[in-house]
């Protein structure tokens, strides 16, 4: 059962070139998160689950000509999925974002507008999710923004934002964050914080990013981010095929392709695997990885004119990367291309260029028939099919060229030594899919940015008319608090949390808040009260002997426990006669009622001394309750249990003290049974009660 007063929810839809995936996240409301004293200087803790994610495999860009079909065909299954996990009462305050990437960027402007309008209309008319501004919640984001969100997500998960900075994340030169690399189907992104020298030299090229910790304090980062449109694996493959076909000319029927596994036959657009007997024009894999590396390298355009130096490739400016402090985390195709096949069975080792290239060379040089056989045997796992196997050679080569020729990451195993611990992010490059069991995706960075924007400023007095003077978001690094191109996570300039019920919490939360919230006016009295409670509890748990010694030491010996007066309940049976007459009753005595072997077994109950014979707890047919009355007793008297019947008097002979040497009361318990006559049958004691021996037990 979800505590709806405790959680915030948020939804991000990643509309990529191959499909749209929905991500559902949640995090503690700030007033709840602030109860934990050790989290004040941290960012909100974002949580998600794998089952909260769902993907539809038709890209949003395919609806360019038919935007009217988007709602029912594309969005409805995703919305229905979200409603399974977002509590109904929280839907109106749960923000929804649909952010489209490279696939949508390739559509004509008018089609882009029509698609986005259709999405916004559907959310507003068919759902109750929080969507105050369509321009901010439904948009095509630039590659630079996608890279920045990814950088936020990666650093958040790996611990680059932790405060104080730990030695694990101290890279030297005052650097503690990690670089981010993403490669999709249509584009590739990079984001990192340059070293101090490069940051000062290229300050105008950086993005100002502002986040806010749980205690309301802003933290700022200066991040460089850029994108290479057309440098994703799918677009790169298209460019490569254009070059390959133009090399051989139109008269050739079979085009040798070194970037395909040896012996595989593919259609000319590399979209389908053909039968070995095909007579159509086709590509024929030769599995020559060294030649593939050579043929794909020119696609990087390393020699392109660089108008704003320095550049990496394609003439695009990037500040010089200091790999001593800039350690990169790669996701998406960087992960899939290194782990789906080539790292199978090697998860205990970080990326090693020399080893990786050797594995790629070995796989792609195999005969296609052998690869097909191993796929059926699931040598590389059940997820690897023929389509994955035929694509992986080009993808691996493209990643190698991008990573080492384009970006310049040192070749681990050749240029530098490798570490051997998995997810040791102090190596120059590490490909990941998850960190701490959470998928690394740019959508996490987006929702984290939104979550921090809902936290009130520590200096609440500076907020005027609900406008935050230094809001969470990002923009140009021009020295101003709110640059002209500043991007807000949601509603512009305002504290972004939608109206929501205040958190009341349970008694534990309230006590915790009183005692430990830094802004509580009752913190000191609360702490004193807590200590007093603990002292009292400790006093009563210390034992009777220690309490007695304490009483005597402070002159309160009269409060010390006397034998038989406390610490144990003492039961004694009053002397009775066969007529029910016995000794006078004593005030405050509890009667112990015996159920004579009822179908449920012997049981006892305590009733006041004035209980009548027809008391509902007394079984029908029992003797007068006075016969079972238990009297208080003094230390020097005891009761005998010589006779069979309850009507016999108890001997007044002196007995040993009921207090044993350990100071515990010895309680004599009896299990009485009805005679056969009492149970409805004949017997020698018809109308009477027989009883067994009374074992003595220590309480």
Automatic annotation (TrEMBL):
PROSITE patterns: GDA1_CD39_NTPASE. GO terms for cellular component: Golgi apparatus; membrane. Pfam families: GDA1_CD39. One of its GO terms (molecular function) is GDP phosphatase activity. The active site is at 146 (proton acceptor). Keywords: ATP-binding, Hydrolase, Membrane, Nucleotide-binding, Transmembrane, Transmembrane helix. Signal peptide: none annotated. InterPro entries: GDA1_CD39_NTPase (IPR000407). PANTHER family: ADENOSINE/GUANOSINE DIPHOSPHATASE, NUCLEOSIDE-DIPHOSPHATASE MIG-23. Belongs to the GDA1/CD39 NTPase family. This is Golgi apyrase. It comes from Cyphellophora attinorum.
């Amino acid at each position: 059962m979800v505590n709806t007063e405790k959680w915030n929810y948020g939804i991000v839809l990643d509309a990529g070139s191959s499909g749209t995936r929905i991500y559902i996240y949640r995090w503690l409301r700030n007033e709840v998160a602030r109860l934990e004293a050790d989290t004040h200087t941290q960012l909100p803790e974002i949580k998600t689950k794998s089952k909260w994610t769902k993907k539809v495999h038709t890209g949003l860009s395919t609806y360019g000509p038919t935007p009217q079909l988007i709602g029912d065909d594309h969005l409805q299954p995703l919305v229905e999925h979200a409603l399974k996990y977002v509590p109904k009462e929280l839907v109106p305050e749960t923000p929804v974002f649909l952010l489209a990437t490279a696939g949508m960027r390739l559509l004509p402007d008018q089609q882009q507008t029509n698609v986005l309008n259709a999405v916004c209309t559907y959310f507003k008319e068919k759902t109750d999710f929080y969507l105050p501004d369509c321009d901010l919640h439904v948009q095509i984001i630039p590659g630079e923004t996608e890279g920045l969100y990814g950088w936020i997500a990666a650093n958040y998960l790996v611990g680059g934002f932790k405060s104080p900075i730990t030695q694990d994340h101290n890279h030297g030169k005052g650097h503690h964050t990690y670089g981010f690399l993403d490669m999709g189907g249509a584009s590739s992104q990079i984001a990192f914080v340059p070293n101090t020298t490069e940051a000062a030299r290229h300050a105008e090229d950086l993005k100002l990013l502002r986040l806010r910790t749980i205690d309301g304090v802003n933290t700022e980062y200066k991040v460089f981010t850029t994108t290479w449109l057309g440098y994703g694996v799918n677009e790169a493959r298209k460019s490569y095929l254009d070059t390959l076909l133009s090399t051989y000319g139109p008269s050739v029927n079979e085009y040798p392709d070194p970037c395909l596994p040896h012996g595989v036959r593919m259609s000319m657009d590399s979209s389908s695997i053909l039968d070995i007997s095909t007579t159509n024009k086709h590509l024929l894999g030769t599995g020559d990885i060294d030649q593939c590396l050579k043929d794909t390298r020119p696609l990087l355009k390393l020699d392109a004119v660089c108008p704003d130096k320095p550049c990496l490739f394609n003439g695009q400016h990037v500040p010089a990367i200091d790999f001593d402090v800039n350690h990169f985390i790669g996701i998406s195709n960087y992960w899939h291309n290194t782990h789906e096949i080539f790292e199978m069975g090697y998860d205990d080792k970080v990326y090693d260029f020399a080893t990786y290239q050797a594995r790629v060379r070995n796989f792609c040089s195999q005969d296609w028939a052998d690869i097909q056989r191993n796929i059926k045997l699931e040598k590389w796992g059940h997820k690897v099919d023929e389509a994955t196997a035929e694509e992986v050679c080009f993808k691996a080569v493209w990643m190698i060229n991008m990573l080492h020729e384009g970006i310049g990451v040192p070749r681990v195993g050749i240029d530098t030594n490798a570490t051997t611990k998995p997810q040791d992010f102090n190596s120059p490059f590490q490909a990941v899919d998850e960190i701490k069991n959470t998928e690394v995706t740019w959508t996490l960075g987006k929702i984290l940015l939104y979550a921090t924007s809902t936290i009130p400023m520590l200096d609440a007095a500076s907020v005027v008319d609900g406008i935050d003077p230094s809001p969470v978001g990002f923009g140009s690094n021009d020295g101003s608090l709110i640059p002209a191109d500043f991007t807000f996570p949601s509603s512009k300039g305002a504290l972004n949390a939608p109206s929501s019920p205040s958190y009341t919490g349970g008694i534990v939360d309230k006590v915790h808040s009183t005692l430990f919230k830094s802004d509580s006016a009752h913190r000191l009295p609360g702490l004193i009260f807590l200590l007093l409670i603990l002292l009292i509890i400790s006093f009563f748990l210390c034992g009777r002997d220690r309490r007695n010694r304490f009483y005597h030491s402070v002159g309160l010996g009269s409060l010390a426990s006397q034998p038989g007066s406390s610490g144990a309940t003492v039961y004694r049976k009053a002397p009775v006669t066969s007529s029910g007459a016995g000794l006078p009753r004593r005030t405050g005595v509890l009667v112990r009622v015996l159920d004579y072997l009822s179908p449920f077994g012997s049981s006892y109950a305590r009733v006041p001394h004035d209980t009548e014979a027809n008391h509902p707890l007394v079984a029908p047919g029992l003797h007068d309750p006075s016969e079972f009355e238990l009297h208080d007793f003094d230390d020097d008297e005891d009761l005998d249990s010589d006779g069979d019947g309850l009507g016999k008097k108890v001997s007044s002979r002196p007995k040993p003290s009921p207090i044993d040497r350990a100071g515990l009361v010895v309680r004599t318990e009896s299990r009485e049974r009805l005679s056969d006559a009492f149970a409805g049958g004949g017997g020698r004691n018809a109308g009477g009660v027989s009883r067994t021996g009374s074992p003595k037990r220590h309480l």
